[in-house]
Amino acid sequence: MALERLLKGFADFRLGYYHDHLDLFEKLATEGQSPKILIVGCADARVDPGILTQTKPGDIFTVRNIGAIVPPAQIPPDERQHGTSAAIEFAVRGLEVEHVVILGHALCGGISALVDGEKGAFAHYDYLSTWTAVAQEVRDLALKELKDLPHDEVVRAVEQASVVNSVRNLMGFPWLAERVAAGKLVLHAWWFNLTKGQLYAFDPTTATFKPVLGIEVAPTVAQGTPLSAIKPQRLIAAAGKKTHECRAELRVLEPELGALTAGDEKAIPALDLSLVAGSERLVQSHVHRTLELNAGVRQEPEDPVAS
Predict the structure, then answer these.
(1) Residue closest to 105 by CA, chosen among 211, 192, 188, 40
(2) Phi, psi at residue 64, to the nearest 5°?
(3) pLDDT tens digits, residue range 206-247?
(4) How far apart, in whole angstroms, are the C-alpha atoms of residue 112 and residue 120?
(5) b/e for 137-155, b at 16 or more Cβ within 10 A?
(6) What are 102-158's pLDDT values in tens digits?
(7) Which terminal Cβ of the chain has fewer Cβ within 10 Å, N or C?
(8) What CATH number labels 35-230?
(9) Rg, the chain, Cα only
(10) Are strands 208-211 and 186-193 parallel, antiparallel or unpaired?
């Protein structure tokens, strides 16, 4: 059934989209491709870059792998296979793209497997852990600094930090760094929340991912950007700080939260719920627990924000 659906889709494409855009395909066939953007995305079936960006054939050059990961440059080059690095090289040196986007996403199975490590369901796989180990240092730091957060919030932090780490790894390729220094190439760290349909871009000034709300977005790395601005450690530190601030704010709100009953969620004073690991979950879990306590569902209160 799955293969039949695939073949039917191709037949529909050939008779529909291909026929309606025949001039475009003839131009691509005779003149070749000249995309201005390279997207390094995840192989996850739910986050197809072409669909997410609604682009046409020829608009973007794409390489997809587990976790949207860029490995460190091998200097000097060796005789081993480097699929992602080869695609990046072809896009930058051959096609001379003007933008490179690292597109990570929420609920990434590859990053989740990295976080779970030897205890995870995929620990016995032959190649997965070796590949995701590119972001091992990021993962280890997050587990240390964010150890009090729920598992999915730690995974989110590592997803985002890994994107920043991949942007940093891009700058290790000399021919890419040269084009950035010359003002001919800019780099972007993006993260897509598929549960909300929202795109976020890394802001080096705050070391956080912020929502993209229009059709303009500042690059993560451009001519003159210092490497110190794109350290994934800064993002993890910001996540830890944000969680601490959120907990402190919840303590201030304790009197108001204590008076809540079922249906009063909207009465909660507005908190700054910027997309940083832990903030949303801390508020939601604390409010739900407060409602349960006030309704008599729980008998022995605990302080979930006192850590």
Answers:
(1) 192
(2) -125, 140
(3) 999 999 999 999 999 999 999 999 999 999 998 887 776 776
(4) 9
(5) ebbebbbebbeebeeebbb
(6) 999 999 999 999 999 999 999 999 999 999 999 999 999 999 999 888 899 999 999
(7) N
(8) 3.40.1050.10
(9) 22
(10) unpaired
Domains of the chain, by residue range, sit at 1-32, 35-230
> Please, which residues have CB within 8 angstroms of residue 234's CB and are 6 or more apart in sequence?
207
Report residue 262 as tokens. 């079922």
| Secondary structure (3-state) at 279 | helix
β-pairing, 198-203 vs 99-105, is: unpaired
Q: Round to whole Å and give the CA distance between 208 and 229.
A: 11
**Residue whose tokens read 């897509």:** 192
Written as six digits, the tokens of 53 are: 């960006």
Contact 106, 193 (CB under 8 A): yes
Q: How far apart are CA 56 and CA 131, in angstroms?
A: 31
Residue 188, strand partner residues: 101
Beta-carbon contacts of residue 307 (< 8 Å; ≥ 6 apart)? 148, 247
Between 260 and 100, where is the model more confident?
100
Count other C-beta atoms under 10 Å from residue 200's C-beta. 23
